[in-house]
# Entry
Amino acid sequence: MEKSEKAGEVVFIIGHIPPGHCTFLTECNKRYNILIERYQNIIRGQFFGHTHNDEFKIIKDYYTHKNSTGIILTAPSLTTYYKFNSRYSFLNPSFRVYNIEKDSFYLKDYLQYRLNITKANMQPDIDPQWEIAYNSSQAFGVTHLYDYTRFDLAIAKITNDKDYFNFIFDMYFSQGSHEKQRKLRNMPKYISCRFKSETLTRFFECTGFRTCNIYLS
# Structure
């Protein structure tokens, strides 16, 4: 980071397990967040996977936890395999295309593509059709992917707007077989806290849970 900053370069961070996840050690997470805050002037994007979910996470400054310093973008999986809190179900295959400004490398938007695997299996003689599930500007009301204020507003809607929660729920689970999870009383809180808790400690503070397993909370 220091070398890139001195050289006038910008940076994309690509990793596997996203910070804030239950298996990301909190002390390591704190150090990561401090680095993001320090080098936010050159970081253009943070891209992760692992969860198989379609989600994002807003990072706040380390000391006051008031100012947003970055966003972690976690894309959903191509595989249909999914395990949610030790319970198995399926996801629809997904991939994502980012729209990036040519000269500045700023992230403008992204298109989320999805394949309806049930429909595809019912029509084996027809090539599977990838469809645009949504784009980020429409889903979150943002004009670019650093519009943290509007992302915060979108997160707040998850717990107080039932229709928006259903949209985010379908997005989060790639419209897979998760109707039992949709009906869980704490699901809106679970998803909104995942989106706004940049460490596991913050997640527990946000949800009031004692475990990452929503079924045991």
